[in-house]
Amino acid sequence: MSGRDLDSTHSQFLLSPPRQRHRSCCLIRLLPLTALLAVILLCNPLSNDDTVPVLSPAPPSSRGAAAGVSEKSTTGMLGSAPAFPWTNNMLVFQRTAFHFQPEKNWMNDPDGPLFYKGWYHLFYQYNPASSVWGNIAWGHAVSRDLINWEHLSVAMMPDRWYDFNGVWSGSATILPDGRLVMLYTGSTHESVQVQNIAFPADPADPLLLHWVKSDEHNPVISPPEGIQFKDFRDPTTAWHSGEDSGTWLLAIGSKNDSGEHAGMALVYRTRDFVSYELVAGVLHSVAGTGMWECVDLYPVHTEASFGLDTSAASAPAVRHVLKVSLDDDKHDYYGIGRYYAENNSWVPDDPDLDIGVGFRLDYGKYYAAKSFYDQNKRRRVVWGWSGETDSEQADILKGWASVQTIPRTVLFDAETGSNLLLWPVEELDTLRFAGKNFTNLPLPAHTVKPLEFAGTTQLDIMAEFEMDESSVKATMEADVGYNCSTSGGAAGRGALGPFGLLVLADSIRSEQTAVYFYVAKGVDGQLTTYFCHDELRSSNANDIVKRIYGSTVAVLRGEVLSVRILIDHSIVESFAQGGRTCITSRVYPTAAIDGAAKLFLFNNATNAAVTVKSLTVWKMRPALMRPLDHHLVGEQSL
Ligand code: DQQ
């Protein structure tokens, strides 16, 4: 079924320049009173005056927690911080230029990504009525290249008893004969989490505009005995079991709260996607991790640099990645291990790197990731949701909440043999222009250097740093127990760090977001490198959750320290050492916006002289994000 007549809203957006889209006043009949007030304020011509603070509406009430599902996770962390007098310009600035966002309203998890008949499809958790979580439907957009997007009408609305309280997250499976099955969680009229199926109404339509839910069969899976009604969600893409030609398996996240607060993944077997049988045992379970959301299980090749289909058979050079979104701490963890279909188990290669204690896909504001195998380019691509860390009042004022991070290719890191490499899809590079290269810039200890580069709010930066070997050797004192989050951030000083870049900074650095390395020398003389983001000074506003994020990053012998940073208004995504450690920050500068935003290099170490071996900065064009031009659909020439 297609969305309930949202097309009238699309025509408005056609007339609006992309960076003004949130001002458009539409869907008024769907808006709650508080949101309506915000819309009226945003429509007020007076609000064009940058100096006039936009008035805050009363806080709306998001229903996520009560519904038993995660939503805006920073609500409640802001304490009694007074609302900042946001001006229209500041809020307009926050809208991104090359990250995927719907035209307006609330978005969360990416759902069912796939490549079909020449188009990439992204579905996402979407509230068609407001910019807080609720009324969850599946938004839908298509792209030729994963970067430029055409918005389509809502693919699935919560309009059946079996998804009345929300069309929640799910995944696509493409069968060998090309047929497409979508499995998703429905929160029923009684808030029971069940699994449902939907199919394209017209499989010949490359845009997959209309979807048919199977009223005859839904729900196809209900919570099994012993599982709580609100702890059973987010079916994965199905994989071919290998037992025989027609049997498929898929996993669903859950938890067992009877004893150890253990998160777990249950596996179901099906032949026709209509009848399902629970496979004995659990795929994997970890005590203390709580509810597992958005489980993802996929193979990676340990030697080749291409991706594998979800159904690729186990083989000596194949490992399986198990990714889990932990509802308790709102982070996406992954482990690398072996999958044994015959006894329904996944076993981590290293138990010390199991779910909840090992690697994260991203150490920042990043959650509910979902990957897909792109048969078009033979690669695995993962999408992740980056929510807002501002207040819900601010989201209402903006008229939107959340972005998707740039889709990232996923590869096994054959160099370290232990982790994944996540890297922006190559198509992103097409947005680069006006690149400027700097080489061999000295960065002595305790310096801050402005980088002359005009226009610093949409950037792609690649930088390589080298520490002066003699300062590393001369550092005698052991530096143990460093931790990005608790060790003073960019302002803290150690012998060999921190050093890196300050982005989205104003000229006096009253605001800055620090992206940096910190090297610690252990008692045994070994170096451990940390990669961190410090958001503490990212905004003069206080009604924002600001954190210091990060972790260790492997640096192998002979490697320089390298980082890629994507800056796009209110999001900063960083990839250290080719994507071994990734961090995403949401930031809301008030002074360092538009032409006032600057870039700096800094070295706050007490001893280490650092050289910036090379640094390339590209400006980034805005990606195309617009409602589908129906005129062109027939020609498919977009
Ligand atoms: N979001 C969906 C759920 C999922 C959660 C609801 C993760 O299906 O568990 O919007 O963010």
TrEMBL record:
Subcellular location: Vacuole
Primary localization: other
Keywords: Glycoprotein, Glycosidase, Hydrolase, Vacuole
Domain Beta-fructofuranosidase N-terminal: 56-91
InterPro entries: Beta-fructofuranosidase_N, ConA-like_dom_sf, Fructan_Metab_Enzymes, Glyco_hydro_32, Glyco_hydro_32_C, Glyco_hydro_32_N, Glyco_hydro_beta-prop_sf
Species of provenance: Platanthera zijinensis
Coiled coil: none
Record-stated family: Belongs to the glycosyl hydrolase 32 family.
Record protein name field: Beta-fructofuranosidase 1
GO molecular function (one): beta-fructofuranosidase activity
Example GO biological process: carbohydrate metabolic process
All residue ranges annotated as the Glycosyl hydrolase family 32 N-terminal domain in the record: 99-424
GO cellular component: a single term: vacuole
Extent of the signal sequence: none
Residue stretches making up the Glycosyl hydrolase family 32 C-terminal domain: 444-619
SMART domains: Glyco_32 (SM00640)
A Pfam family hit: Glyco_hydro_32N
